[in-house]
Amino acid sequence: MTHLPEQNMASTIVIVGLGQTGLSCVRYFLKQGIVPVVVDSRDVPPGQDELPAQVTLYKGGLHPEILLQAKQLIVSPGIAIATPEITAAQQSGVEVIGDIELFVRAAKAPIIAITGSNGKSTVTTLVGEMANAAGVRTAIGGNIGIPALDLLDVAEPYQLYVLELSSFQLETTHSLQAVAATVLNVSDDHLDRYPDFEAYRQAKLSIYQHAQTIVTNRDDALTVGAEQDHDGDTIKQSFGVDDAGYGLIQQQGSTWLAYQGKGIISADDLQITGLHNLMNALSAIALLDAAGVDRIKTLPGLTQFTGLAHRCEFIRKLHDVMWINDTKATNVGATLAALDGLKSSVKGRLYLIAGGDGKGADFSPLVPALRDDIALTYCFGKDGERFAALADNTKLVGDLDTAIAEISQLVQPGDWVLLSPACASIDMYVNFMARGDHFRALVKAL
Asked: Is the pTM for the entire model greater than 0.90?
């Protein structure tokens, strides 16, 4: 391996982990006239072919001798900061941050920050579309779509940023001062990365630090930390199914989204369905209100929103049977939200397809729904056996093809079929989108 000259390493910026986030960091530093070094543990890091020639890439390990000589490590979200090599560098005085920290230090417009175990991509997209509909030039990024640093390199500056932030990104972000921030919900996820659930939750709650307004979920006490209860300088708002704050009311024979008991818009005017989507809409309204965006001007963006691909996405109605793709439900809470949101619409029986890599999560919260709301659950993947053991009305199969083939022979008019895995896809697919695309192709072929 080639070693960098020690005199150069004294001021070196080291990017740990390549991929799309790492490449965005490289581009950012090069524009500042700084040539960083990249370190990646993989032998063939994704994106290495796009790396500019002047940037040195050290691969096949984290190379502690390089990390220890750096001034600053920019760690990609996929790499735990608890990794021994990174911990050692941090203990020796090296600053350890992520791309979002770089972004918030440079951004000149207000930031709406969104996290949660489930629904954050939907809410981030919805907030961005509503703001743009109101005539506010708004960028969407972070853990969704365009890497955050790339949003800075535009000819016409943005007036508002809407960032989806994962717990991993929040771990390396310390200077965020959001105009409005929310933790939508908290449920078991990424327990293969965190020592326990509370550590994961605290990573989520850190989004509230220095926020002007925090928006919590009244129906999920885990979205509120003790420090938020006693922080007198922060404006506090909340959303929930009751009629307090941002909530729901009944008027004119239908359900309305409301604020302090006054109707804002009828749920009948929305193209997204399910109780979970009404909560998503309420949180979006609350965040934009906090950011000072004209609510009346945002509502056309809400009524035009049809949801995200792979998130309770309608695929096909065949012989009066509905096929729904919710492959983005990669944890237990997401699947519970989908089941709760959709079950009132099902006239016949509901069939569930689930399984994959459970990431160490506890599946037991699913048991009542599997037993009471599901006709039959087909399970597959790495944790398929563990999933199938949750209830008697389950069947273990080898793959998605088998599940679709068998269910297609069982369904009757009025039935629904839902792919909502409650697990990651990495045991069998490149990503959750590939799993959803496979589901779509199989259903379309019926």
From this structure: no
Give Cα separations from 429 to 78, 206, 358, 437 (angstroms). 17, 32, 14, 10
Distance CA 330, CA 189 (A): 8
Nearest to residue 141, comparing CAs of 167, 168, 166, 176? 166
Beta bridge partners of 376: 351
Q: At what angle do helices 120-133 and 275-290 cross, to 10 degrees?
A: 50
Beta bridge partners of 318: 321
Distances (CA, A) of 250 to 191, 253, 255, 265, 285: 39, 7, 5, 11, 18
* Enclosing H/E stretch for 351: strand 350-354
- Report the C-alpha gap between 146 and 120 in whole angstroms: 15
Long-range CB pairs of 104-108 (<8 Å, 24+ gap) are 104/173, 104/175, 104/176, 104/177, 105/175, 106/149, 106/152, 107/152, 107/161, 108/157
- The 10s digit of each residue's pLDDT in 12-36 is 899 999 999 999 999 999 999 999 9
Which residue is it, tokens 């379309």?
A: 444
- Any bridge partners for residue 258, and if so which? 247, 263
Alpha carbons 352 and 329: distance in angstroms, whole number? 12
- Interstrand relation of 160-164 and 111-115 (parallel, antiparallel or unpaired): parallel
Dist. CA 255–CA 131, nearest whole Å? 24
Residue 246: strand, helix, or coil: strand
Asked whether 217 and 286 are in contact (CB, 8 A), the reply is no
According to DSSP, the β-strands at 321-325 and 313-318 are antiparallel
> What phi and psi, each to the nearest 5 degrees, are found at residue 405?
-60, -45
* 110 phi-psi bin (left φ>0, alpha ψ -120 to 50, beta other): beta
pLDDT digits (tens, 9 = 90+) for 139-194: 999 999 899 999 998 989 999 999 999 999 999 999 999 999 999 999 876 667 88
CA dihedral (360, 365, 371, 375) in degrees, to 10, reads -60
Contacts of 115 (CB under 8 A, 6+ apart): 164, 165, 166, 167, 170, 182, 183, 184, 204, 207
Mind telling me the catalytic residues? 120, 143, 190
In the chain the domains, ranked by start, together with CATH numbers, are: 10-97 (3.40.50.720), 101-304 (3.40.1190.10), 313-444 (3.90.190.20)
How far is 91 from 303, CA to CA, in rounded Å? 51
- Residue 431: is it exposed, middle or buried by C-beta count within 10 angstroms (0-12/13-18/19+)? middle
